[in-house]
């Protein structure tokens, strides 16, 4: 498919911060949907490293995670021929538009951002301006590409609403410049919870590695985490197990791995001890992740291939972003550089 035809597809944009470890929850909630949508949308999938530095990072670790996350995008089935995959800092237009949009974002709006409040509590020794103006950079990420749809979870819904407000404000002040993005809410699917606290969503940035299933966990680690996962006071599977937060979460995970429902899994294992079910779940998890991990390690062993995809993605993103940014500069009155 030629680039022009791909560009006529509706644009769907999403990004993940290179922090922590991509977990099963990320695959179920985001990456699997990306793969399923790539036939119908031009996917722009970003490793958003500029967002990550609002929290102090170890430089070598950050660089390694950027490449690792990109490789995991590919290992999950994202086709680089059909989508645009790149690292955010490789496209300087993100930072440039972010500054412009900061000038069209009100302090009152930023003061209401719950994520700033939450992160400030967790990192109270580093409450920086970047953490505060983070939503303007997120708006730039989206608006640069005239994005049609943005997959959103509960934690990002407020940011997308602000992005829409900023786009409308700019368009109304000048003339239509940005496409106002719509939220993409996938069909209700499995919600993967923490292995040790089933009332909390599984998070890739959790400080306790026993709370999440990393997509790169080796088999022995996967088995250990499942064995230690919380259940409840009962000892065997019943139809009501799906309503128990602990064992219900494990039934949900098994259903995701085997393309079924928690109810059918509970029926399949009805009467079996939790320990037996956990063993079956661990086996399914190892089998499910084995081809993903094999592909990932193959990609990571060929850095020329990986960096080539990221370089090509960045060049295409720069072209798309520069078209929007030049319009913005012209609208707000900046002098265009001279042409030789």
Q: What are the SSEs and their pairings?
A:
Layout lengths: L2 H5 L3 E6 L7 H14 L4 E6 L1 H4 L6 H18 L6 E5 L5 H10 L4 H5 L2 H9 L6 H15 L5 E3 L5 H17 L8 E3 L34 H10 L16 H13 L4 H7 L5 H27 L2 H30 L8
Parallel strand pairs: 1-2, 2-3, 4-5
Helix pairs in contact: 4-13, 5-8, 5-14, 8-9, 10-13, 11-12, 11-13
Give an overview in words:
The protein has helices spanning 3-7, 24-37, 49-52, 59-76, 93-102, 107-111, 114-122, 129-143, 157-173, 219-228, 245-257, 262-268, 274-300, 303-332, and strands at 11-16, 42-47, 83-87, 149-151, 182-184. It has 340 residues and is mainly α. It has 2 domains: 3-185 and 303-332, HUPs (Rossmann fold, 3-Layer(aba) Sandwich); 209-297, Tyrosyl-Transfer RNA Synthetase, CATH 1.10.240. The longest helix is centred in the last third of the chain and has 30 residues, at 303-332.
Gist of the model:
The protein has helices at 3-7, 24-37, 49-52, 59-76, 93-102, 107-111, 114-122, 129-143, 157-173, 219-228, 245-257, 262-268, 274-300, 303-332; strands spanning 11-16, 42-47, 83-87, 149-151, 182-184.
Oligomeric form of this entry? Answer: single chain
Give the terminus-to-terminus CA distance: 34 Å
Major sheet characteristics: 3 strands, parallel
CATH fold-type name of the largest domain: Rossmann fold
Structural domain count:
2
- Kindly provide the name of the CATH class of the largest domain: Alpha Beta
Computed structural class: mainly alpha
Poorly predicted ranges: 1-6
Gyration radius, to the nearest Å? 22 Å
Could you report the average pLDDT, rounded to the nearest whole number?
90
Count of discrete alpha- or pi-helical segments spanning 4 or more residues: 14
Strand percent estimate: 5-15%
Under CATH, the homologous superfamily of the largest domain reads HUPs
């Amino acid at each position: 498919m030629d680039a022009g035809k791909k560009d006529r597809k509706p644009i769907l944009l999403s990004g993940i911060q290179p922090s922590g470890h991509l977990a099963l929850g990320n695959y179920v909630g985001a990456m699997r949907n990306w793969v399923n949508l790539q036939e119908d949308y031009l996917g722009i999938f970003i490793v958003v490293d500029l967002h990550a530095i609002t929290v102090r990072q170890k430089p070598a670790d950050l660089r390694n995670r950027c490449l690792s996350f990109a490789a995991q995008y590919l290992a999950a089935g994202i086709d680089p021929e059909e989508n645009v995959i790149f690292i955010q800092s490789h496209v300087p237009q993100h930072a440039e538009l972010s500054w412009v949009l900061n000038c069209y974002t009100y302090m009152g709006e930023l003061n209401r951002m719950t994520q700033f409040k939450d992160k400030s509590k967790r990192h109270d020794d580093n409450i920086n301006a970047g953490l505060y103006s983070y939503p303007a950079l997120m708006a730039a990420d989206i608006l640069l590409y005239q994005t049609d749809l943005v997959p959103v979870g509960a934690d990002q819904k407020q940011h997308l609403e602000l992005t829409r407000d900023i786009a409308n404000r700019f368009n109304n002040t000048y003339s239509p410049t940005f496409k106002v993005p719509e939220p993409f809410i996938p069909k209700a699917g499995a919600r993967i919870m923490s292995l040790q606290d089933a009332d909390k969503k599984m998070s890739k940035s959790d400080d306790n590695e026993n709370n999440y299933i990393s997509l790169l966990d080796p088999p022995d680690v996967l088995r250990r985490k499942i064995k230690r996962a919380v259940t409840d006071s009962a000892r065997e599977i019943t139809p009501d197990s799906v309503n128990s937060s602990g064992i219900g979460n494990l039934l949900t995970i098994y259903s995701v791995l085997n393309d079924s429902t928690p109810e059918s899994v509970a029926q399949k294992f009805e009467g079996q001890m939790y320990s037996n079910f956990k063993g079956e779940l661990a086996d399914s998890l190892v089998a499910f992740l084995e081809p993903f991990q094999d592909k990932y390690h193959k990609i990571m062993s060929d850095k020329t291939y990986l960096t080539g995809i990221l370089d090509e993605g960045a060049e295409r993103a720069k072209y798309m972003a520069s078209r929007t940014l030049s319009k913005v500069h012209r609208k707000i009155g900046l002098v265009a550089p001279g042409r030789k």
